[in-house]
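Protocol step 4 of 5: obtain the predicted structure for the target chain.
Materials: sequence only (see below). No template structures provided, no constraints applied. The aim of this step is simply to have a reference model before the mutagenesis design in step 5. Sequence pasted as it appears in the construct record:
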Amino acid sequence: MKNTMSKNAILIVSFGTSFNETREKNIDSIEKEIMDLYPGYSIYSAWTSKMIIKKVMQRDGRIINTVSEAMEQIVRDGIEELTVQPTHIINGLENDFMIADVMEHSKSLRKISIGAPLLNNIEDARVIIEVLTEEYSMSDKRKALVLMGHGSSHHSNFAYAALDYSFKESGHENVFVGTIEAYPGIDVILRSVNAYNPSEIILIPFMLVAGDHAANDMAGDEEDSWKYIFESAGYPVKCFIKGLGEYTKIRDLYFKHLEAALIS
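Step 4 output (structure tokens):
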């Protein structure tokens, strides 16, 4: 990452991915744009998934810092004021772990500010709704848009159900938000889609990167993939393997959170 003589720094934290193409389109793209937006800051990056970090190192020889390793480097570099911007979707477990690792070094810095993840409040939801309904022309009520999120055991997982409700409150009763690992799961979403009975389903990942989950859990040919489940129910399905970081206005939402943290 970029290191200047400045004592002010930005740390960008992502979960990570072993899929290089989607990393370049999403994580790398966000990091580069932040570097361009804030030339006077030293820029650092870290991933929270140690399993993915290890896999990428063994396969590609690419060294990626954990949050703790990045913080140790930041302290060694003499940074005084740090702003941390996660690319996480919700205030879930990964965000909590990130904050804990950052704050272990709080006594070594004069100030630490932490930006919000993507879906932090109703205003964020409204931006997401506008971006995705315009992108996929959801004014056509004959088709349904299904967003596949990751999901979490964390209490903040309710953000997915709240986003689903917000889509419908805004007039998009043909948009459905589900998760792989929590509520609402594919069983809930399938019942809701059946009740709506669209002529076509569009499947997209509601994740920063379109990696393993998008390629396999969403669009794969196995019997437990969402594509297979919807097709087995009789629906034509189109899958778009596109991470949230590829939408300009979604990236802008992250940058808005970062700017708010910088001036806090």
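Step 4 remarks: The longest strand covers residues 8-14. The radius of gyration is 19 Å.
Proceed to step 5.
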